Amino acid sequence: MRNFAKNLTRRKNATAVIEDYREDGNIQGTNLVRNLQFRDLVAFGIAAIIGAGIFSTIGNASAAGGPGVSLLFIFTAIACGFSALCYAQFASTIPVSGSAYTYAYASFGEFVAWIIGWDLLMEYAIGNIAVAISWSDYFTAVLRGVGLGMPEYLTMDFLSASRGFHEAQTLLAQGRALSSFPTHLQEAFLAWQNAPSLAGFKLVADIPALGITALITYLVYIGIKESKRTANLLVLLKLIVILLVITVGAFYVNTDNWTPFAPNGLAGIMKGVSAVFFAYIGFDAISTTAEECENPQRDLPRAMIFTLVICTVLYVVLALVLTGMVPFGELAVGDPLAYVFSRVNLDAMAGIVAVSAVVAMASVLLVFQYGQPRIWMAMSRDGLLPSAFSRIHPKHKTPAFATIVTGFVVAIPALFMNLTEVTDLTSIGTLFAFVLVCGGILLLEEKQKAATAAHKGFRVPYINGRYVLPLLVLTTVVLLYRFRAAEVSAFFSLSGGWESFQHKLPLLGFIGIAGMLTVLTCIRKLSLIPVLGLLTNLYLMTELGLTNWTRFLSWLALGLVVYFAYGYRNSKLHQPQ
């Protein structure tokens, strides 16, 4: 039993990880091609972050939080900023593929590394599914705009069609006309009603989502140079369009729409946390490129910080422009940027936005499809997954088998899944990765102080949290009781039974962890930035609801079955030297 527990925590320290892939003094053990420079990394980051978040999910977030959602973008950026600094130190210390998985292996050990690797596979796959679905929505809208519409049952996922049809039936039974329904309900009703059946099963599938996934997977398969050039071009195009949207939209802003600034209070602002955070997960993808960077120790940290700052400014300004152009309640649509310009009778701009969104979200899919196979590859090289996943194509120099598998993992669910079903799950997975990366920095500083101090690359600035963190916690408690006393009392009330109490479990867990971490920070003088990163990301996880936690924990439970059935025994650290 003691050996079993010891094996779960076996670690590959930073030196061992690098030595595994060092050859003749250069990290090139996988034969991947090193040709990414700083500007390419920034382009990759912007390509991943500026996509579905701006062109799709920002609408629902703004509808829930009003103009105040701009504050949520800032708060989320701060939370991501803490994490980005921790990522930057790891990327500088361990410049190999694998992202948070590799970092967890070096700090927490194999078992936690497996959990975060399994989590990353879900995060990237589901994130790509969401982007493919969103891309399909814009693509079909553009086709309809030029008179080339496809049948609804070939452009909508199965879940949306099924649910929309039954909701429409309920409204029809109440005597309402189909023409009075929202557009998405009309399309869902027609898709389900007109779809052919096979053995009683409605053949409804999102064919455009399948097509774009296949195309992007092929591009990633044939090489990093092609992916880089495509990403750079698409990023330039989308930045031009976003700046055009902001400039033109500013002339149509009605400042009365900004009052009230937070119409649904803090709860309304935080309701959009999953949509907003989904918009930020792209900088994680930058760290998967470590083995294809010309100078990863220098360029990776800088690229992460630059990307986060640029994208935050764009998101905040755009949120204010959107909520200024139309009343916030109208923004709960799948294509908010195109909608607001149609609303102010600028149909030409709406068309430009719709076409650019098709291009922009293709770039997001490109970066995510690029990153995920490298997670598979890193886990496979450590023996936790079959060796086929780390096989490098002799001509294209890409993880060929892993890339093909990634294509199937994204394309098939994109045919049938709903956008809402996947964005929340992606957010909780990303936040979990950020929590562990921040915790990993704390652990490294405790266990390897000498090595950390001697490290010449980027380091998270050390700020003694002994006095600052307790002050922040105390201030938060005082403000809550000053302005939210009734809500705090209701939260700690035992009325409502288990049905009410179970939804409080995530936040209660956060409160307990925050208390313990505050005590540890006072005793051990922990570094403030990773502590704040851990706490802010953990708090954002509590805002995602019990249903998402249940799905997330179910996915991790499945991962444990795979680990103990295969990874534990086949790990290279388990094999005799």
Automatic annotation (TrEMBL):
PANTHER family assigned to the protein according to its UniProt record, in alphabetical order: CATIONIC AMINO ACID TRANSPORTER 4 (PTHR43243:SF4), INNER MEMBRANE TRANSPORTER YGJI-RELATED (PTHR43243)
Name of the protein in question: Cationic amino acid transporter C-terminal domain-containing protein
Recorded topology in the membrane: Multi-pass membrane protein
Keyword annotations: Membrane, Transmembrane, Transmembrane helix, Transport
InterPro entries, per database record: AA/rel_permease1, CAT_C
Compartments it resides in: Membrane
Domain Cationic amino acid transporter C-terminal: start-end pairs: 528-571
TM annotation in the entry: 41-63, 69-88, 199-221, 233-253, 265-283, 304-328, 348-371, 400-419, 425-444, 465-485, 505-523, 552-568
Domain of life: Bacteria
Source organism: Pontibacter amylolyticus
Major location category of this protein: membrane
